[in-house]
Specification:
Layout lengths: L13 H22 L9 E3 L2 H8 L7 H13 L5 E3 L23 H4 L56 H17 L21 H19 L1 H8 L16 E2 L5 E2 L11 H4 L2 E3 L4 H13 L5 H10 L2 E3 L2 H10 L2 H7 L23 E17 L2 E14 L4 E6 L4 H15 L4 E4 L3 H10 L2 E2 L8 H6 L2 E4 L9 H21 L6 H16 L18 H6 L16
Parallel strand pairs: 1-2, 5-6, 7-10, 10-12, 11-12
Antiparallel strand pairs: 3-4, 7-8, 8-9
Helix pairs in contact: 1-3, 5-6, 9-10, 9-11, 13-14, 16-17
Amino acid sequence: MGKTKLAPNPEISIPRLELCAAVLAVELADMVLSELDMQIDSTLFFTDSKVVLGYISNEQRRFYVYVSNRVRRIRQSSQPKQWSYVSTNRNPADSRTRSIPATQLSTAAWLNGPSFQFRKPTFKPHNPEPYNLVDPDSDADVRPVVTAFTSHCSPSSLGSHRFTRFSTWKTLTRTIARLIHISQSWHRDNRTNDCVGWHYCKTPRSAEALSQSTKIIIRSVQRDAYAVEISCLSEHRELPKSSALRKLDPFVDNQGLLRVGGRTRRASIHHNDMHPLIVPGKHHVATLLIEHHHRLVYHQGRHFTEGAIRSAGFWIVGGKKSISRIIYYCVICRKLRGPVQIQKMADLPEDRLSFEPPFTNVGLDVFGPWPITSRRTRGGLAHSKRWAAIFTCMTRAIHIEVLESLDTSALINALRRFFAIRGPAKIIRSDHGSNFVGARKELNINSNLNTRAVTQHLADQGCTWLFNPPHAPHMGRVWERMIGITKKILNSMLLQHGSTILTHEVFTTFMAEVTAIVNNRPLVPVYSDPEDPVLLTPTTLLTQKMGSIPTPPPLGPLT
């Protein structure tokens, strides 16, 4: 038995037509079953539209009225498991919508039925799992999914875990104060201005609102961190022995805040100063409080920061350790009071480590000047200046020559006197002074800045002059240190000398005595071992004599 219907006008979509065909199939099945006198065990329905199969098997989405009514009619007479898919070329109902030649009509599926109905009785249609909707998001007959969100408000606690989103205490307090203002704007009796509902109010918050927000923040933190202690105090029970607040004698005030107790409750002191609010030291709010008051005291030390926090009415549990940790990682404090980084020293040069006689490798520098009385004139005294050239051996011995000027000739004469007394040197190191460069050229000494061949006379002596790079005084640290010691000794001598008149002879004598004092200093630490009483000094290496060589005192005032 077969039945067909014409498509309605105006035209509707193909899935709707296929759905109407499914409705026609269940109506035809109901009519046939009602006319038969035999018992039918099962009924199978086949369609070549997977969209219709998705409509019939749907349990998740909702349809518009057209599809919803027809799916409800189909499911009144059948179940989704009775429906199966059949391909178009094997569907006998498809023959009614297409033209078939008369010669093929006798063998067509419209008259003979589908080929799979002649198989064994154990045949079951291929339906491994329920059919799903085909592209439901773009289907015009499927209603869109509506997602509903519910909000649960907890009137007892704000939840301190939300405070970790804030980086400053000021921002946190102002945000909570703004929320309080918004909540009050919903109540007609609590409105302070024309603000209504959710809005962003640019009006500055008052001191009372900020104080109220501070109490709400601290109350939320205390309820999360000290829930056991607050429960014990509310029930008038003793705190656990493991509680960190046991020594603080805490109590809960009339606003539900946990404060530090004590025996001074009757004193005429401000309540916040006498009973500060307890804040857990490991909470993020404690970090915000410490950073806020640390900035208020302009990045001073722990003592200042802790005093500012206590004056504000807060007691941070373990505050000293928390404040020290935050100050340690404070960038501004590190810039202001951080230790100076020490650069790793380079390896010692080869001439510092060689086993050679004294003054073989020499460092040279000039320092001064000092005013000198050169001669007496009819009008008074003629004054001039004197400088000193210090020759520092790598064994820490020194030799000082007095210079009358800073020109090249004066330095050459000092070098000739030094060579005559101490012997020739192999290496001379100095900075890049103009007088040193001139003296090297006059003496034809080889240099690391000059590639010319050494003259025959100085080549036999093997003397080389090495210049340090410009603007690098740290490379002459050996003789720069000796200059500092020499100046200290000389300043003490001039102070004891008393007279402002200093002649060339007296100045030369002072330099000789300074040389003796510096060369007689210990090169190693002075030990307290009685079995090693001997001191190693530069004089011992120069003269090969043990013990100090005292300088004879002047017979009278030096003039």
